[in-house]
Amino acid sequence: MIAYSRQLIEQEDIDAVVEALKGDFLTGGKLVNEFEEALARYLGVKYVCVMNSATSALHVAYQIIGLGVGDEIITTPLTFAATSNTAVQCGAKPIFCDIKFDGNIDERKIEALITPQTKAIAPVDFGGNPLPIKAIKALCDKHKLFLIEDASHALGGELDGVKVGQTADMTIFSFHAIKPITTFEGGAIATNNSDFYEKAKLLRSHGIVKKELWNSDMVVLGENYRLSDVACAMGLSQLGRLDNFIQKRNEIAKYYDERFANNPYFFTIPIEKNKKSARHLYPILLDRTLWCSKEEIFKALHVKGLGVQVHYKPVYQFSYYKEHFGEQRLPTAEDFYRAELSIPCHQGMSMEDAVHVADTLLETLATIKGCTL
Ligand SMILES: *Cc1c(COP(=O)(O)O)cnc(C)c1O
After folding, report:
1. What's this model's pTM, rounded to 2 decimal places?
2. 299-305, long-range: CB within 8 Å, 24+ apart, which pairs?
3. Which of 23, 72, 232, 361 makes the best surface tag, with the fewest CB within 10 Å?
4. Are 197 and 49 in contact (CB under 8 A)?
């Protein structure tokens, strides 16, 4: 099965991890700082605080801005549930804003959702395609809101030559196995704000500060969200190859873009010239006449070894959200969910694999009977 995304582990990753295993500190050693500094240099930001997942990093970011009961955050429904779950865990109410047909939040629809309770906007760079961060930042400045960008898909992405991570108050990255780079599980907050950074470090480790000798103090209610040295060794090794990974993904994506131009079955999502996508996903959007056959298409592709996936069921459709926040309909998010399939595109694939994926996909779709609308 060719997965829609997967990690690429090479000998240098294995060597780095083995070396770290022989060190004095399996966790809390110097590799944590080294990985954070390397990430900060790569991103062009002042501070990075790594954690054991992007979910943890989101939770900490929301805690840092004091998100709580009575507050609202505006976010996208087209995301992994953690983006809003962690805000709900803080007691806040998620307000879902509709998207555009590239999968990113529709920045023109945000302002109408802002209320006196709104505390933050939390958009997602869908598939690694950088969102219009400047417009959203301007809205946040105008309404005095925090901007927390969930860039779990977008490490290494750029907009107008500016790396994703430089603009928001805090930007969240994921190092889950199939994300742009991996530390097995892992995540980070990138920020230029020293106060946010200090709070992140505190919350990551129980809210405890060391004093003298054995004495310590616990000053805020924190968690254990630390990332181990062994994981950071892996992260440092992977980060060295990130640009190479992204280049490979973009080569495959370019081939797909050309190969699929004007095909009768689906659309692809063009990436504007001023952007560099990290290409966590390569989404295709089925023609409306094929929406009724999506299950059949999904199954047929899996039988033929193409590990396609669907990103995402709109978060408000989950029963937990319906129960707690009521029913909602956002037309573009729902059409996108009906149309979308993520096809294999990752750094472990060869161009022959990409040709095979394209051939198999087009052959399979030719056998599917569409519906009349
Ligand atoms: C993967 C993902 C997360 C969660 O990442 P973890 O590191 O697995 O906690 C959050 N948001 C988005 C958009 C993701 O894709």
Report:
1. 0.98
2. 300/364, 300/367, 300/368, 301/341, 301/360, 301/361, 301/364, 302/1, 304/360, 304/364, 305/1, 305/2, 305/360
3. 23
4. yes
CATH of the domain at 349: 3.90.1150.10
Is 59 close to ligand 1, i.e. is its CB under 6 Å away? no
| Structural contact between residues 191 and 45, judged by C-beta atoms closer than 8 angstroms | yes
Q: Is 50 in the pocket of ligand 1 (CB under 6 A)?
A: no
Answer whether 53 contacts ligand 1 (Cβ < 6 A). yes
312 lines ligand 1 (CB under 6 A): no
How far is the C-alpha of 142 from the C-alpha of 145, rounded, in Å?
8
227 and 82: one domain? yes
- Ligand 1 atom nearest the C-alpha of 82 is 10
80 lines ligand 1 (CB under 6 A): yes
Contact 164, 155 (CB under 8 A): yes
Q: Are residues 272 and 133 in the same domain?
A: no
Range of the domain at 117: 2-239
pLDDT per position as a tens digit, 237-291: 999 999 999 999 999 999 999 999 999 999 999 999 999 999 999 999 999 999 9
At 20-56, the pLDDT tens digits run 999 999 999 999 999 999 999 999 999 999 999 999 9
Q: Do the domain assignments include residue 102?
A: yes
**Residue 262 Cα to ligand 1 middle (Å):** 33
